[in-house]
Amino acid sequence: MTEAYIRDLRPRDRNKILHAKVYRAWIHRDLPDTTNKGFRAILLDKQQTLANPTSLSFSRFFTSFDDIEDVGFPDHYFDFASYNKLPDRVVDPKEKPKKLYPVLTDYIGCYIRSGDKGKVGNPNRTQSVQRKVEIQNLNRNSLELTLWGDLAEKFNKERIDALERPIIIAVSSCRVSRYNNNLQLQSTVATYFYINPRIPQLEEYRAE
């Protein structure tokens, strides 16, 4: 077996050893449908490889896992999109054959306010929890982030509102949509939010 970085992997590669960090992990669901569709994870190696066209499938018969020390791996890695680039990431369901789908987006901005969590859907069929969060960039462009399911539950509004301003929020792996011609972010099962994350952009926002 030979060691490899994620970016070097190609389809049908075998007998490779990866040193990687499980950056995010989740049970896959197509929200608001809460049906469990399997386990998914995003791996981060020491080259900070996230954007990659290759997906890995692990088999219990051919794959083994060993714990390694969390040394040399970054705490966070984002590929933030600016507000003016978001329109290019809006995916119309009618245009699926024309665009990669879904286009997942990382975004950063100042936390302005959030609403209370609320239930949506039919209680006799499928129902989920959502919460609205307003995010504003340094150009004072605001947009609405909708957190679904467990993320809406985990968002501690009272604790976050009590923090010293400005409060910086980074969100990962969101879908971009439009409603009444306004840009919006929707969480996916791969999304997570980070409050005042230790990244270089944090001080830039605080300075402004």
Number of helices: 3
Largest sheet: 5 strands, mixed, barrel
Radius of gyration: 19 Å
Classify the helix fraction into a percent range: under 10%
CATH topology of the largest domain: OB fold (Dihydrolipoamide Acetyltransferase, E2P)
Terminal Cα separation, in Å?
A: 50 Å
Q: List the domain count as a whole number.
A: 2
The level 1 CATH classification of the largest domain is: Mainly Beta
Q: What is the strand tally?
A: 11
In terms of DSSP E residues, the strand content is 25-35%
CATH architecture of the largest domain: Beta Barrel
Helix/strand order, N-terminal first = EEEEEEEEHHEEEH
InterPro entries: NA-bd_OB-fold (IPR012340)
Protein name: Nucleic acid-binding, OB-fold protein
Q: Which tags fit this structure?
A:
single chain, 208 residues, mainly beta, OB fold (Dihydrolipoamide Acetyltransferase, E2P), five-stranded mixed β-barrel, two-stranded parallel ribbon, NA-bd_OB-fold
